[in-house]
Write a sequence for this structure.
C-alpha cells in the first residue's frame, strides 16, 4: 500500500536539511504524560525563580493540540551553533557561544516559515504554527520523543553525533505524518562532569536544574540585582554560560556551524576586558545590534559586568 505519510515525512526532512537545520524528527502530537508531574514539581519548588511566565499556560505546555487546532504532528528541528571562535582577551567578561551572531529567534523563524511554505506548496494546505523557544512548548521533551537525542544530566538535549550546542524549534501541524521512535537510551552513564563543574550548584540532581541559581538565568532572565551569594561564583560570565556544555564529553563531537547569520559581527570577539568594563550605551547598540544580548538591555549587561568586578 502506498504510504503517503512516509513520503511526506521524508520530503519535510529533506527540505529541513536543505534549509540548514542539523536534524529533524517527528512525533505524534499528544499529551506529555510523563512530563506533567515533573513540570508541576519543578514549578512548586520555585526552580523557575522570577520566570513567572513558566507558570502560565500549564496545560498548553503539555498538550500541543491546545496550541494548534487539530494538531497531529510535532516536527522538531535542531540548528547547530557550535563554533571554535573565542573572545580574543581571555580576561574579558564572557559571552555564551549562542549569542556571538544574530539573534537565533529571528534566524530560526525565517527557516521555519520557509519550511511551512514548502509543506503547503508540496503537500497541500496545512494548519500549523512555528515555535522558537518563546512559546509554551517543551522543546527538549519533543526533541527526545522525535529521536533527536536524550536529555542529559545538565537538562540539555544531547545528540550522540553532534553533542549539545544546538537550538531546538518546532512546527506543530495538523498533518498526519510518519513518527520517529523516541530516544530512550541515556548515554550519560555515571559521568557527573556537568554537576561537578557548575560553580553555582544549579544542577541539583540529574536532569533537574534550579533555574534561579543558573548563571544564564542570573545574567539574562533576572531583572533585579544579582544576589550577593553569587559573588565570585559567576566564573566571569556576563551573558549566558557554557560551562555544563564545555565539560560534557559528548561535545567533543561538535562540529563548527556554517550558518552565516551566527558569525560574530561588529568586533564582538575583539572587545577587551577594559572595553567591556567601560562599555557605553552607544557601543552596546553598535556591537549588539541584532544580537540576542539585546534582551538584557544596556543596563542589564552593565549590571552583570559590574557584578563581576
Amino acid at each position: 500500500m502506498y504510504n503517503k505519510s512516509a513520503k511526506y515525512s521524508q520530503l519535510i526532512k529533506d527540505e529541513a536539511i536543505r534549509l540548514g537545520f542539523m536534524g529533524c524528527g517527528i512525533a505524534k502530537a499528544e499529551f506529555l504524560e510523563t512530563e506533567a508531574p515533573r513540570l508541576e514539581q519543578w514549578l512548586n519548588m520555585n526552580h523557575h525563580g522570577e520566570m513567572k511566565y513558566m507558570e502560565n499556560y500549564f496545560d498548553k505546555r503539555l498538550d500541543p493540540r491546545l496550541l494548534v487546532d487539530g494538531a497531529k504532528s510535532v516536527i522538531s528541528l535542531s540548528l547547530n551553533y557550535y563554533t571554535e571562535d573565542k573572545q580574543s582577551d581571555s580576561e574579558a567578561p564572557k559571552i555564551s557561544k549562542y549569542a556571538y551572531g544574530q539573534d537565533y529567534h529571528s534566524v530560526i523563524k525565517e527557516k521555519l516559515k520557509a519550511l511551512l511554505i514548502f509543506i503547503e506548496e508540496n503537500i497541500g494546505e496545512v494548519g500549523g504554527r512555528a515555535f522558537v523557544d518563546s512559546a509554551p512548548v517543551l522543546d527538549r521533551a519533543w526533541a527526545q520523543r522525535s529521536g533527536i537525542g536524550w536529555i542529559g544530566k545538565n537538562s540539555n538535549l544531547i545528540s550522540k553525533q553532534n553533542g549539545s550546542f544546538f537550538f531546538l524549534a518546532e512546527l506543530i501541524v495538523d498533518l498526519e505524518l510518519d513518527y520517529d521512535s523516541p530516544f530512550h537510551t541515556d548515554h550519560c552513564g555515571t559521568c557527573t562532569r556537568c554537576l561537578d563543574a557548575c560553580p553555582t550548584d544549579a544542577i541539583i540532581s540529574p536532569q533537574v536544574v534550579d533555574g534561579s541559581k543558573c548563571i544564564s538565568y542570573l545574567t539574562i532572565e533576572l531583572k533585579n540585582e544579582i544576589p550577593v551569594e553569587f559573588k565570585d561564583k559567576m566564573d566571569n560570565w556576563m551573558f549566558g554560560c557554557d560551562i555544563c556544555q564545555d565539560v560534557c564529553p559528548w561535545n567533543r563531537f561538535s562540529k563548527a556551524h556554517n550558518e552565516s547569520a551566527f558569525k560574530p559581527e561588529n568586533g564582538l570577539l575583539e572587545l577587551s576586558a577594559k572595553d567591556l568594563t567601560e562599555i557605553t550605551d552607544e557601543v552596546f547598540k553598535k556591537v549588539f545590534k541584532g544580537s540576542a544580548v539585546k534582551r538584557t538591555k544596556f543596563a542589564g549587561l552593565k549590571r552583570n559586568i559590574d557584578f563581576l568586578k
